[in-house]
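Recap from last week: sequence in, structure out.
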Amino acid sequence: MTDLIPLGEVSKSLEEIGYEVTYAYNDLVFIEHSPFILRFDLEDVRTVHFYAHNSFDETEKNKYFSDVNDKLNKSSFKIIMSGTFELMESRKEDNNIDVIFYENNGKK
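Predicted structure tokens:
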């Protein structure tokens, strides 16, 4: 059985460092203005994968990661810099947005 995702705990920690969670879907956590997305590891919900927006340079990515890592580590979370993402308008007529993840290993 998979443990419940500790969304409330992560949301509160992010708000304490100035980031607002605007949407959560399954294992994904979206932040206001989308500088990064967090994805819970479903086998170990205390492990969180960090994806920076693909428009940021390494300095910006590292700043966001450092903020999140420093805060969530204090709450016994393990944060992994897993890659980048981009948002694209859905090709469907449903007004949704597609999220495309690029793993650090080069896979989509």
